[in-house]
Amino acid sequence: MKFYDAHIHFYLKSPTEELKPVFSRLTKSGLIGFNALVFTEFPTEIKTALKMVPGLYHDSISLAALEMSRDPFPYFELAKPLKIIPFVDARFIDNGIEEKMERLKQGGFKGLKLLYIPEEDRAMLPGARPIRASWRRNPPWYWNV
Known about the structure:
Elements: E1 3-9, H1 19-28, E2 31-39, H2 46-50, H3 63-69, H4 73-77, E3 83-89, H5 97-107, E4 111-113, H6 133-137
């Protein structure tokens, strides 16, 4: 059976040359593509960044991994024939958002991730970083994939 994963956080924790075999294994398992959620901006303190990441992944995330993943497009070339649709994980973008999002869109990003649900919260968002109120009223754009 062929399948597509709509929610994969993309960050590099190993050397680039190790990616091609990983992508090959995924293709052989039936994966035809995925939405890659990429932090293009993140805090300088790893403790702050980890607050937005489920605990299961804390051991594999570092500032170096996030930095290497900031521009994922060269790595996506290694994934062919997988179809990878890059999304901006915008949870750490605090200022100049409209300009940054337009630049990222022009750079090849096709979508936007805003929502954050803390792993402790099994109901609805009480400790989460809220989506900007102005975005809820007037989303600045809709991107077509």
